[in-house]
Amino acid sequence: MLNRLRKPCIAFAVPSLLLASGTAFAEYKFNLPEPVSPVTKEVFDLHMLTATVALIIMVLVTLVITYSIFKFRKSKDYQADQEFHNGWFGTWSWLFVPAIVLGIDLTIAGSASSTFDLIEDKTPADLTVKVTGSQWKWTYEYMEDDVKIVSSLLPKEEAGDRYLRMVDNPLYLPTDRRVRFLHTATDVLHAWWVPAIAVKKDSIPGYINETWTIIEKEGNYHGQCAENCGTGHAFMPIQVNAISGDKFDKWMSEQKAITLAKAAEAASGKVLTLDELMAKGEELYNKNCSACHKADGSGLPPVFPPLKGSVIAIGDISEHLDVVINGSSGTAMAAWGKQLDDLELAAIITYERNAWDNNTGDAVQPSDVKAAR
After folding, report:
1. Which of 160, 239, 320, 363 is spaced 20 to 30 Å from 195 by Cα?
2. Do residues 162 and 155 lie in contact, with contact meaning Cβ atoms separated by under 8 Å?
3. pLDDT at 24 over 70
4. Cβ(36)–Cβ(221) below 8 Å
5. What count of other Cβ atoms lies within 10 Å of the Cβ of residue 27?
6. Which helix (H) or strand (E) holds 296?
């Protein structure tokens, strides 16, 4: 009875499974984003070639296994061939199978070689951007224009459904211009990766890696740190806004003006009041420091100690300045001296010394930071 029902059941089950899995093919977006630069198009094509070859191999192997299971099943009284290794196929398959595998590998390797050559192309660029990874933000420096932007995760209440994808200061790049990226880091390994426009390269402290792109289409492109850089690894999104060359030139002019104004304010020697420093310090602290030490100063012990009531925050000012400017060796505390200007550091330190009931009354001025550098 069971034998008579087996074939009808199989005939019914296979189409049913195919129909049921139809929803899996309805959403066909489980792939790399649409490439919009020459190098990412090459990478995408290589990825599709590899996936296609793997799919063909999987189908062929599955067909052979399925055929063998049904053709030589025990119910048909087939016996295992104990002399298979002495036959023609058993003898020569040790040569044919490796040759086929090598041929497949060389087919992929030929395309991969040209892709790797394109990735390492060193044609002079129109624009150079230094990308520095830090726990847990990105700093972008436009080398020819002396403009620096710090890009951090946009809070959930502002990002909404796009949380973990949006940042406060996106990287703006022009379309149809060759952009050179210089990758480094200040603390641990990071990796800047926006799959639609550029390949992944590690950001290594004390070392420079290089990638490039020519963005062919305007739009907003997203990426993520692709190296496990610590507990805040998931909070390092990347957002690139690609705009036309004319729009980019206008945007860059505005950024230069802002940079000059900030530099003039920091170098003015103006003595700020405690209230002014606290207001500016709170904004900067929440943007740059709260990821580790939390908004309420309670920290994330033991890696990130609390600042509320800490010896550093309420102790000697010179030690506080040294830790913030130069970092702390052997700990996760990064050096902020090269990332922020004198005014920004003065505001943050003042805030840390007077927030959360620390109440030291100290107002650290930009001139104090300058002297401590």
Report:
1. 160
2. no
3. no
4. yes
5. 7
6. none
Q: How many CA atoms lie within 13 A of 305 on its CB side?
A: 10
For residue range 324-371, list pLDDT tens digits in order: 988 887 777 778 887 788 888 999 999 999 999 888 888 888 888 888
Dump pLDDT digits (tens) for 72-128: 888 888 887 787 778 888 788 888 888 888 888 888 888 888 888 899 999 999 999
Q: What pTM did the predictor assign? A: 0.75
All structural domains of the chain with their residue ranges: 31-119, 127-264, 268-372
- N-term to C-term CA, the chain: 89
- Cβ atoms of 8 and 16 within 8 Å: the answer is no
348-369: burial string, b at 16+ Cβ within 10 Å, e else: bbbbbbbbbebeeebbbbbebb
Tokens of 208: 């420079």
Sign (positive/negative) of CA torsion 144, 149, 150, 152?
Answer: negative
Q: In CATH, which superfamily holds the domain spanning 127-264?
A: Cupredoxins -  blue copper proteins (2.60.40.420)
Strand partners, 205: 185
Calpha distance 173→241 (Å, rounded) = 6
Mention every residue, 6+ apart, whose C-beta is less than 8 A from residue 114: 42
Report yes or no: 227 and 218 within 8 Å, Cβ to Cβ. no
